[in-house]
C-alpha cells in the first residue's frame, strides 16, 4: 500500500488526519482536533491510574474520530473482539484487502516505545498499513518515521486489560462523502467546544480546573505522595496524550484555519490569545516539575493559585470565543 | 510559544526521539516543528519511573527476607500495582494481595500461576523466583 506517514503531536488527531489524507481529504491535525470539538478539560477523581486521578485535557478516546463523522459525512466501522486470535485474523484480512486500519492499544506493550515512556496507558492510537512476514508495518503518529512491531507484541498491546481497555478496537472508513471542510461545521464545532469548557458540571471545563486546584490546595507539602500527585498532573498535561498546553497550541492552529475559512479575522486574534494561555500551562508545568525535582520548595498552594489563574483566563477566553462565532 | 522557544533540551526519556510541537513563527502563524524534549517532561517522567523502580527494589528486598512472594517484585517490575494486576489477571484485589504473601503464593496451583504468567507476560518459572 502506498501510504504517507506524517508525524503529529497527538496520537488520535494524528491517526485520523493521516487516515483522512490517505482517503483524499486534505485535513490537518489541528483541523481534526477542532472540528471534532475534542478540546476539553476533565478532572475524574473516581478513575485511578496507579492510584492517581485521571485528568484529561480532551474528550474521551474515540471522540476525535467520531466527532469527524458528521462534518465529513463519513461512516466508519468500529470493531472489538473477544479473543486476540479473532482480532488478529480480522486485521490480517483487512490488510490483505488493502485497507488502512486504525487501532487502539496500550503503550506499555509496544516494544518500539522508549523504555521510560512505557506505562500502562491503554488509549494510544496508531495506524497499520501493511504486514511484512511476522511484522506489522505501523504508522504511529507520535513517531518521526513509520515503525514495525512483531505480531505477538501488537496483539498484547491491542488486548491489554485495565482502565480504558481497548478490547482489540479497530476502525476504518466505509465512506467519506464530503472531501472538504465547510464553514457551517466549523462554527458548530467551536460552539460545542465553548459549551464543553463552560459546562455547568463541576468536574468538566473551567470548573474542573478549579476543582483540581482545590484538591491540590489540600496536599500536604511534607507528604512524599504530594510530589507524586504534582508530577502526575504534569504528566497528564505534557506527556500522556499530549495534554494541556499541547492541545491549546494545536487548537490555536485550528482557530487560525477557521479565521480564513469563515473569513473572521477576530478568530486569528483568539488564536494568538490561546497561545498565551498555552504558555501559562507550560509555565505551570515547569514550576511544578521544579518542585518535583526539589529545586524549589514543594508548595501545592502556589500551584493551585496558578491553576485558578489558568481557569480564569480560559473562562474569559471561551466567553469571547462564543461571542466571536455568535 | 514562539518557534525559537521550542525546547531542544535532549530529554533523556525520549531516547533520541523527537516530538512534533505547535508554535508561533515570526509572522504570528501557528506552525509545526520538532522538539528534542523538555526538562519539565523529563523530570516528571523520570520521577514516575523512579517511583516504580523504588517499589520494585523494596519488593525485592522483602522477597529476599521471606516477607513477600516473588509476584510482588514482578508486579512492580512490570510497572503494575495491585489494582492493575487484579484487572489484568482477573483475580479479585484481595486475592492478589493474598498471593503477594509467600505462603499463599507457594501453594498456588498451576492454572492460577498461568493466569499471572499471562497477565505479566512472563514464564511461570521466572515468576517463581527473582532475577
Widest β-sheet, arrangement of strands of chain A: 3-8-4-5-6-7
Number of DSSP helical runs of chain A: 11
How confident is the prediction overall: mean pLDDT of chain B?
Answer: 94
| Biggest pleated-sheet summary of chain A | 6 strands, antiparallel
The percent range for helix content of chain B is 40-55%
The backbone outline of chain B, from C-alpha atoms, is: elongated
Instruction: Supply the helix-strand structural class of chain B.
Output: mainly alpha
Distance from first to last alpha carbon of chain A: 44 Å
- How would you characterize the largest beta sheet of chain B? 2 strands, antiparallel
List the helices and strands and how they pair.
The complex is a heterodimer of chains A (326) and B (131).
Chain A: H1 11-22, H2 29-35, E1 39-49, E2 52-58, H3 63-67, E3 74-79, H4 84-96, E4 101-105, E5 124-132, E6 135-139, E7 147-150, H5 151-158, E8 170-176, H6 183-197, H7 205-217, H8 224-238, H9 243-261, H10 265-293, H11 300-324
Antiparallel strand pairs in A: 1-2, 3-8, 4-5, 4-8, 5-6, 6-7
Helix pairs in contact in A: 1-2, 2-9, 4-5, 6-11, 7-11, 8-9, 8-10, 9-10, 10-11
Chain B: E1 19-24, E2 30-35, H1 39-64, H2 70-77, H3 82-89, H4 93-99, H5 102-106, H6 110-120, H7 124-127
Antiparallel strand pairs in B: 1-2
Helix pairs in contact in B: 1-2, 3-4
Key features of this structure:
heterodimer; A: 326 residues; alpha+beta; six-stranded antiparallel beta sheet; two-stranded antiparallel ribbon; globular; B: 131 residues; mainly alpha; 9% strand; elongated
Account of the 3D structure:
The complex is a heterodimer of chains A (326) and B (131). By secondary structure, chain A is of the alpha+beta class. Chain A is 49% helix and 17% strand. Chain A has eleven helices and eight strands. Chain A has helices spanning 11-22, 29-35, 63-67, 84-96, 151-158, 183-197, 205-217, 224-238, 243-261, 265-293, 300-324; strands at residues 39-49, 52-58, 74-79, 101-105, 124-132, 135-139, 147-150, 170-176. In chain A, strands 3-8-4-5-6-7 form a six-stranded antiparallel beta sheet, sandwiched between helices. By secondary structure, chain B is mainly α. Helix content of chain B is 53%, strand content 9%. Chain B has seven helices and two strands. Classes of the chains: A alpha+beta (326), B mainly alpha (131). At the A-B interface, helix 8, helix 9 and helix 10 of A face strand 1, strand 2, helix 1 and helix 3 of B.
Amino acid at each position: 500500500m502506498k501510504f504517507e506517514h506524517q508525524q503529529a503531536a497527538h496520537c488520535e488527531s494524528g491517526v485520523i488526519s493521516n487516515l483522512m489524507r490517505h482517503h483524499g481529504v486534505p485535513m490537518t491535525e489541528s483541523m481534526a482536533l477542532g472540528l471534532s470539538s475534542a478540546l476539553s478539560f476533565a478532572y475524574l477523581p473516581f478513575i485511578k491510574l496507579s492510584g492517581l486521578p485521571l485528568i484529561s485535557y480532551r474528550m474521551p478516546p474515540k471522540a476525535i474520530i467520531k466527532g469527524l463523522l458528521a462534518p465529513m459525512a463519513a461512516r466508519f466501522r468500529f470493531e472489538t473482539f473477544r479473543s486476540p486470535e479473532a482480532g488478529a485474523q480480522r486485521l490480517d484480512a483487512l490488510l490483505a484487502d488493502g485497507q488502512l486500519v486504525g487501532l487502539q492499544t496500550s503503550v506499555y506493550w509496544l516494544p518500539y516505545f522508549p523504555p521510560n515512556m512505557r506505562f500502562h496507558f491503554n488509549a494510544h492510537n496508531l495506524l497499520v498499513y501493511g504486514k511484512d512476514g511476522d511484522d506489522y508495518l505501523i504508522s504511529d503518529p507520535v513517531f518521526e518515521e513509520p515503525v514495525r512491531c512483531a505480531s505477538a507484541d501488537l496483539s498484547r498491546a491491542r488486548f491489554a486489560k485495565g482502565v480504558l481497555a481497548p478490547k482489540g478496537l479497530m476502525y476504518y472508513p466505509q465512506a467519506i462523502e464530503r472531501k472538504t471542510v465547510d464553514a457551517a461545521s466549523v462554527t458548530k464545532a467551536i460552539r460545542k467546544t465553548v459549551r464543553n469548557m463552560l459546562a455547568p458540571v463541576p468536574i468538566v471545563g473551567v470548573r474542573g480546573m478549579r476543582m483540581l486546584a482545590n484538591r491540590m490546595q489540600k496536599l500536604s507539602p511534607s507528604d512524599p505522595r504530594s510530589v507524586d500527585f504534582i508530577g502526575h498532573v504534569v504528566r497528564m498535561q505534557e506527556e500522556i496524550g499530549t495534554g494541556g498546553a499541547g492541545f491549546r497550541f494545536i487548537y490555536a492552529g485550528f482557530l487560525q484555519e477557521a479565521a480564513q475559512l469563515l473569513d473572521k479575522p477576530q478568530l486569528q486574534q483568539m488564536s494568538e490569545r490561546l497561545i498565551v494561555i498555552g504558555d501559562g500551562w507550560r509555565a505551570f508545568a515547569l514550576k511544578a516539575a521544579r518542585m518535583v525535582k526539589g529545586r524549589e520548595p514543594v508548595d501545592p498552594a502556589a500551584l493551585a493559585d496558578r491553576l485558578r489563574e489558568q481557569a480564569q483566563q480560559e473562562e474569559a477566553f471561551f466567553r469571547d470565543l462564543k461571542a466571536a462565532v455568535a | 510559544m514562539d518557534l525559537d522557544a521550542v525546547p531542544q533540551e535532549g530529554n533523556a526519556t525520549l531516547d533520541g526521539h523527537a516530538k512534533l510541537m505547535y508554535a508561533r513563527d515570526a509572522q504570528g502563524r501557528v506552525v509545526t516543528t520538532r522538539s528534542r524534549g523538555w526538562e519539565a517532561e523529563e523530570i516528571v517522567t523520570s520521577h514516575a519511573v523512579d517511583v516504580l523502580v523504588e517499589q520494585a527494589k523494596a519488593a525485592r528486598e522483602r522477597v529476599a527476607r521471606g516477607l513477600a512472594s516473588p509476584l510482588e517484585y514482578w508486579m512492580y517490575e512490570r510497572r503494575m500495582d495491585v489494582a492493575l494486576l487484579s484487572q489484568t489477571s482477573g483475580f479479585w484485589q484481595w486475592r492478589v494481595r493474598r498471593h503477594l504473601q509467600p505462603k499463599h503464593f507457594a501453594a498456588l496451583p498451576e492454572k492460577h500461576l498461568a493466569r499471572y504468567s499471562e497477565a505479566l507476560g512472563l514464564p511461570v518459572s521466572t515468576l517463581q523466583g527473582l532475577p
